[in-house]
Amino acid sequence: MATNEHAPLGGKLVTGPFLVLFVVFFAAVIVLTQRFAFGLGSVTHLSDGYPWGIWIAIDLIIGTALGCGGLVMALMVYIINKGEYHPLARAGLMTSLFGYTLGAFAVLIDLGRYWQGHNILLPWLWNPNSVLLETALCIFAYIIVLMVEFSPAAFERLGMKEARRKVHRVMFVFTGLGVLLPLMHQSSMGTVAVLLGHQISGLWQSQLLTLHFLVTALTMGFAVVAAESVLSSVAFRRPFETRILSRLAGIMAWVMLGFMVIRYLDVIRVGALPLAFEPGVQALAFWFEFSFGLFAVLFLLPKGNRTNPRFLFLGGMMMLFSGFLYRLNVYLIGYDAGPGWTYFPSFGEILVTMGIFALHIMLYLMCVKLLPVLHTVRSERRQRAGAGAPAE
Fold this sequence. Notes:
Oligomer: single chain
Radius of gyration: 21 Å
Strand content: under 5%
Order of helices and strands: HHHHHHHHHHHH
Number of helices: 12
């Protein structure tokens, strides 16, 4: 691919929205300072019954799924060889890098003895029977892979042509790992939930959780790519990428429909459907999750809707909300530690989560303005002429 196919946006970096995000992030840093100085109990509502809260459920379990845009793009561009999606690949890789790096940081701040976090890299301390070990090692390795996959953007910006050329020689290895590793650890996140057994409501507990988590990683990854593309087009006054997104949206709409059929038939199979009609938070969360998924399919399945940026955005957001709520339901809302145990996140926990997402957006804004991440906008005539041309 020619190096001039991507270019930095340029423009003013510190804007009003950027400053608002920085204030949120700075407030989170203050809370984190207290956490590292005085322990988890000083800022969280965690307990023996609920040893993990939103820092794991949202920042890691959901945050890494939001970072699966790189996985979706790698599958489409390099594995299925659909070069037409290449303009979206670099932005997808960048969001994956940020999502996974910040998710790993969330694990670090959630560890009681965070100073022993490096033990995961010491083989003589491993428990080879632990699914958490496999998940942690895969995430660590995937972050390194993402750094390598995204490095050509930095090399282009710095004019390091030789370094970029050498990386491209071995990129096929990292591309393969970039597909394999997230498939492994995303499914393993579902396996962790399977091990919790009866503590998870029958509305979500299933032997198919590994498959469900894998599919939601794909749907949420696409949703982030679609939403990011539409929002960046609006924010930076760029042409909408509907030609590219519409075909990808068609594929993901069928994936979402298949997931919903398997997921809800499984609820019926295990006899858990009556739980959906019992009054309570779990039943309400179940129907919200179902509704978001249904609206995603209704928005994206009709071919005419997929050429409309509004429907692409709404469908992507519905798909994102459905996956977001599904994972939150499995790890928190649908989880019952037993009599006497309750959990609701503290203000400090919520603020840290907001700060992590604020940092993610800040990094995105910085990178698209300073690095060649977004593809170069061409004239409409040239776009039409090159629509059928193969990617370089």
